[in-house]
Amino acid sequence: MDAPTIRPKFLKNGHELGLVAVGFSGGQCKPGVDAAPMALIESGLVSQLKADLEYDIHFDDQVHVYTEQMPKDDPDYRGMKKPRAVCAVTKQLSNQVYEHAKQGRFVLTLGGDHSIAIGTISGTAKAVRERTGRDMAVIWVDAHADINTPEVSGSGNIHGMPVAFLTGLASEPEPTKPFGWISDEHKISVKKLVYIGLRDVDRAEKKILREQGIKAFSMHDIDRHGIGRVMDMALGWIGSDTPIHLSFDIDALDPMWAPSTGTAVRGGLTLREGDFIAECVHETGSLVALDLVEVNPSLEEQGAAETVRAGVSIVRCALGDTLL
Ligand SMILES: NC(=[NH2+])NCCC[C@H](N)C(=O)O
Ligand SMILES: [Mn+2]
Ligand SMILES: [Mn+2]
């Protein structure tokens, strides 16, 4: 197969890819999501990216599994569960992602629960700003908005809060406190955030989306307009000269396609709709990073292989595999 045909606008070239594998489950309560990076790699993802898509992969060959290294003493803070563990992992991850992105590489991060996006998006936002002088946009594909502030979250699970930290809606005024490391250079604007696939949004989150004027395409919008028009509108909102970070929660897909995930919600995207989103974002040439999160191979074990396969498919599409 030929090298990728889309010329990336904000990367050094179309071939260099930094891969980060983050086996972290501390942003929520179900064990097993930390095994996803290994499952994805074992299913052939990395070798496919090398052989079929001809990426030069920069990877430390380590699946960072943080389960054992989590601080023993990690009491709740502002209602958040495991705040120090999440803080430690995301801070380290942010630097790792930053180092790849700073060199103009595409950054692919395999999670892990969605709390890790605090690390990935902060890292790319900072690097992209330094390299290109532009503010990055984020496309968040998910059944959930993950924009609870600690104060309004019903669960205290930080995987339901990353967007609040990244947009500055959940601030941590003191740099010495757990999320005090997140500074302005790491943040994204609510104006450059677009959601696709929402169908399980908490009441307080709906209020935030309304008040902040955040662009969101729910499953209702996808039913009404079709995924093709929704993608035109989503990408039109972002504009053609803006770098894009795509954060893909596998639970955006219907459990029919991706049953092995911690907070599955019925009535979701088909696998083709998920792949189509990834393809459209790839086609812009503006994609600089991708997160794939919330695959939990230990849940719904009969469906685990299918869920992993769906994840591999999304990644391949975002990296240009399916375009002719
Ligand atoms: N990344 C996810 N799967 N998030 C689910 C979040 C569910 C719920 N809104 C919460 O805050 O707890
Ligand atoms: Mn979700
Ligand atoms: Mn999520």
Automatic annotation (TrEMBL):
Keyword Manganese belongs to the record: yes
Residue runs in coiled coils: none
Keyword Cytoplasm: no
Pfam name, any one: Arginase
Catalytic activity: L-arginine + H2O = urea + L-ornithine
Enzyme type, top EC level: hydrolase
Source organism, top-level taxon: Eukaryota
Protein name per the record: Arginase
Organism: Neohortaea acidophila
